[in-house]
Description:
By secondary structure, this protein is of the alpha+beta class. It has seven helices and four strands; from the N terminus they run ααααβααβββα. The chain folds into two domains: 61 residues, no CATH class; 80 residues, Glutaredoxin (3-Layer(aba) Sandwich).
Amino acid sequence: MSEEIEEIFSYYGKQRDKSSQEMVVSLLRELQEVEGCITPELKRRVMETTEVTDKFLNCLIKMYPSIKEVKQVHEIIACTGERCAKKDGMTILQNLRRELGIKKDGSSADGRIELRTRNCLKQCRTSPNMYIDGKLYSGEQLKNIKKLLNDVCKEE
């Protein structure tokens, strides 16, 4: 593991309240900032360092959706504003959720795609709208969401 990761574990291992929820969550967030996600190896080290159980750690990870066990590769932001909704935006969003197997935390079944919604993307003239990895997709581009996802997500 990297020197930075070792330094983080060293710091948290010396804390008096290292097994408190607050400390464990802080540790997880710092590790994720460096590694991008909490790998099985990092989880094992967290349990050793903080002396918490696997069950406790898994509960914390579920409680905090920002803590990810898989590195996110793509981010999709879908507009749910009034104009987009009137132009099939909600149907497209439902299809997108179904196609990706989006869970309650907004991540895809494989954890590689995060879906978020916004009330308005301020692009009403081209509705419906969606950002995929920071690039705007609108109108007809969204009609075949499966093809669009295949085209965009295969460019990894």
